[in-house]
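Entry: N-acetyltransferase
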Amino acid sequence: MKAEFENIPLKKNETLKRFEIEVNGHFAFINYKENGTQISLIHTEAEPELSGTGAAAAVVEKTLYYIEESGKKLLPFCPYVFAFIKKNPEWKRIVDEKFNGYENI
């Protein structure tokens, strides 16, 4: 994660069902669904003003830390999150082994 994002807090916006960070009034976020012991990450997006800044990667990394700290398992349905974990395989530790595609990470 780029240094400029390290001190930006992750917010779990339960109303909009997304994890988000706010950078200069603009948002990078991941839509999620939560059930019991699992959190599904569905879609990652950064507002156009944040394009190319690394904000999307930052919100993904912060969300993965949140999931790990919560003791839940991840279902990475979002292609961006899936690719992030494939690129950073240490995060496979929080992916639910029952996830269809687990062996491809």
